[in-house]
Amino acid sequence: MNVYLNECGIVCALGSCLEEVRANLFAGRSGVLPTADCSPGRELPLGQVRGALPSVAHLPPAQRSRNNALALAALAQIRPAVDAAVARFGAHRVGVVVGTSTSGIAETERALMHRAAHGELAPGFHYGQQEMGSPAAMLADELGLEGPAYAHSSACSSSAKAMASAARLIRMGLCDAVLTGGVDSLCAFTVAGFSALESVSAERCNPMSANRHGINIGEGAALFLLTREPAAVALAGWGESSDGHHMSAPDPAGEGARIAMTEALRRAGLRPADIDYINMHGTATQQNDAMESKVIAGLFGCEVAVSSTKPITGHTLGAAAAVEAALCWLALQPGNGQGALPPHLWDGAADAALPALNLVPAGGTLGRPLRHAMSTSFAFGGSNAVLVLSSTGSAGAEPMAETAAALPPAAVPIADLLPHSGRMVLLDTVVSAGNDDLCTEVTIRPDSMFCDGAAVGAWVGIEYMAQAIAAHAGWLARQRGDAVKVGFLLGSRKYEASVPAFPAGSVLRVHAHRVLQGDNGLGAFECRIDSEGGTVATATVTVYQPDNVNEFLQGGIAG
């Protein structure tokens, strides 16, 4: 199931609307300017939003923050499309997932300064302003939404993870549309924190340069309307990993970054050679640039066009991945016939210790429309997230070698894929299958196993899902020429059904989507059951398949 970035709203140091951001981006103009607003007595380059923002006076006190004003500014640009989606799908079928890291910390800073001077907190201050979930709750309230609404806060990977989560909500059938992206606002707390780490540059940041000295902090918001409805740009893939190398430093070998990139490619069904452009995390710190350039050179080579846009926008922290995805979204639009790319602004002094990547110069183009773009985000604590955005007007790439081809439309007997027989086979057919997805179908008959003559209890749905997962394993085994294994073990599960039973005569489509697969046999699937055009049950299922189940059950070593 494909998901599409139908609409985009953005506000950042480059401008307060898409057209302003587009013009400044491709002209190579930076919005990072010196100011002492967040560092009294010391001027630092910051990526500030300088235009007027929407009023938050109509919001409850707990939601009145600059962070939420930035979110409202991005929302205003796509509000008609979002309202139309709510009218089309229903408020309960539209969700909100955003990333942030500062929320209302700036309001707390002002309140504490007021207390230091006057003995009481500033009028209008509410502790709820600094809730990390505030932007998601505010957007849901503003739009009257009843679907899932939550925020990710994993530092610089926050909004990439939010967008991946939004895609999963749609692919699981929990939502038909999701408002997703990220927002973060400047405050003294983050500037002081990064300064304490000696990571803040006194000049405009200079990624990949021998003269780089660290980051410039920025602020901004980028929101997308994500649906199944085809649009010019698809969210084709995403990859996530967590290496936990160090609280603030990346793993020098970049293994977690490489895993996230590879997983995003695999999910998009692309080879490294298919990627036309990479928007690097590119913080201009010594360690990030060394790690990231090494991984890119190793996986993609040094010919692919790359740039860091942080000298243009500043590092917008929890909003960075969404802002940079928006810049890729602009480059992927049909009107960009020559493939103009976001430029890499730096002093040109290459660091001889780094791979000689193909850094996009000001005014750089591909000379043809952009097909596939990757955006990378690497956060504190080894939280890595990578997005792949693709133009839907371009010819698709051949799948990666390890991506299995989809089954033909003709239904396949599921008994050919399961290590079961007779009445133990609960499902009827496999409708489609791929490297990470399998869809099966079952008709509930009066003589079906577990049927009381009138219906099958909804609890049996988890067993249908279990067999769909087992069939997926069997299908992959047959693709490799291996025997179908006996003993597919299931671990923890979370199962929810919106109906008490599946009545006789109903036709169920049981979907299993693999979201995680480890080399140790552990994996996770997101499953759902559809009936009569709607989703009636969902589950997240953790699975474990030892190489030798009999040995495992007898207490030996399965492997």
Automatic annotation (TrEMBL):
Keyword Transport: no
InterPro entries assigned to the protein according to its UniProt record, in alphabetical order: ApeP-like_dehydratase, Beta-ketoacyl_synthase, HotDog_dom_sf, Ketoacyl_synth_C, Ketoacyl_synth_N, PKS_Beta-ketoAc_synthase_dom, Thiolase-like
SMART domains per UniProt: PKS_KS
GO molecular function: 3-oxoacyl-[acyl-carrier-protein] synthase activity
Pfam families linked to this entry: ApeP-like, ketoacyl-synt, Ketoacyl-synt_C
Gene Ontology biological process terms, A to Z: fatty acid biosynthetic process
Domain Ketosynthase family 3 (KS3) intervals: 1-391
Sorted UniProt keywords: Transferase
GO cellular-component term (any): cytosol
Keyword Transferase: yes
Family classification: Belongs to the thiolase-like superfamily. Beta-ketoacyl-ACP synthases family.
Name of the molecule in the record: Beta-ketoacyl-ACP synthase
